[in-house]
Write a structure and sequence with these properties.
Helix content: 25-40%
Strand content: 15-25%
Number of strands: 8
Number of helices: 8
Structural class: alpha+beta
Shape: globular
Distance between the termini: 17 Å
Strand order of the largest sheet: 1-4-5-8
Length: about 325
């Protein structure tokens, strides 16, 4: 899913791609790509999720086949935020279908202007179009844009995914859903005088503050012992908190939130837009599984296909 907004189109490059290239890239790749990321000159997208590989990203089917010193890529990606604006994309592709699904994936740094790359924006419930689907038709990429080792792309992707979860959850404001305007609206509208509503607002405020502190703790070096899995705690909390904020904001605004002469009211927009948050960056169900297995140490979820070659798996 990969793929969402905090400071608009530059969030992906600054928060996700840049740190991953710094960690996994060659010196040549770092010199080539990092200046444009840090200056804001270059927009990037993630080419991770696919129509049949969203929550189960490791089952992705986009293929990269070796052709001398190059690779030929065929496949389709979806939910790639700002791909229509991006000059580059971080691409996951399957390079060995005879390995288990996590083991046969390689990461590439793709030029979005390369022949064979087609981007189509998708209209969202809010009317915006920053999610995109991307079609890759015999796209030729050179091996020098490979990030990390061949068939080791899953480890590269985990770096990006854990950073995304933490980056989206510093507080509810990280997703563009701050609580402060709802508190101010409650004061102006007189709803603050209702003790039940006031308790609900204070519960959200306490959760927001606790979320911010928990996210700081998850970013500490000690948290990396579990591959940054604690970021799933804050991602889960942030996504659900943001939806609770927008729902209560819509309720406090009352009838004024339901109608605008043109477009959506701010409260209606926030309510609709927040629906994506428990999906983008990894669904809440996936976050709960990660927390259970990697943070709490519970037994892993049964998977009858674990260890089987990707080519033998049934895929939807």
């Amino acid at each position: 899913m990969t793929d969402d907004t905090v400071d608009g189109p530059h969030f992906v490059a600054h928060t996700l791609i840049g740190p991953t290239i710094a960690a996994w890239g060659t010196l040549q790749q770092q010199r080539r790509y990092l200046p444009g990321i840090t200056s804001g000159a270059d927009i990037w997208c993630q080419l991770f999720s696919e129509p049949g590989a969203g929550s189960d990203l490791a089952s992705l089917g986009t293929r990269a086949q070796s052709d001398g010193d190059d690779w030929i890529v065929n496949g389709q990606k979806v939910w790639s935020s700002f791909a229509n604006l991006a000059g580059y994309g971080m691409l996951l592709a399957r390079t060995d279908p005879d390995k288990p699904k996590h083991a046969g994936i390689t990461c590439f740094l793709l030029d979005m202007a390369a022949p064979g790359v087609t981007v189509r924006p998708l209209r969202q419930i809010t009317g915006e179009q920053h999610f995109c689907e991307v079609f890759l038709d015999a796209v030729r990429v050179s091996d020098d844009i490979r990030l990390g080792e061949v068939n080791d792309g899953w480890r590269v992707a985990l770096s990006t995914l854990s950073t995304e979860r933490s980056g989206l959850s510093g507080s509810s404001e990280a997703s563009g859903v701050p609580l402060a305007p709802v508190l101010e609206l409650a004061r102006r509208a007189g709803a603050w005088r209702d003790p039940v509503l006031r308790d609900r607002l204070m519960a959200l405020l306490a959760t927001e503050r606790a979320l911010h502190l928990t996210n700081l703790r998850a970013q500490a070096p000690s948290s990396q012992s579990r591959g940054g899995a604690e970021g799933s705690i804050t991602k889960l909390a942030q996504s659900e908190l943001a939806q609770r904020i927008t729902e209560l904001g819509y309720e406090v605004a009352g009838a004024d939130a339901a109608y605008a002469d043109t477009g959506l009211t701010p409260e209606a927009y926030a309510l609709l837009d927040s629906r994506r948050l428990t999906i983008a960056g990894g669904t809440s169900e996936i976050q709960r599984t990660i927390i259970a297995e990697r943070v709490l140490g519970l037994d892993r979820e049964p998977d009858p296909n674990r260890g089987r070659p990707w080519s033998e798996l049934r895929r939807g």
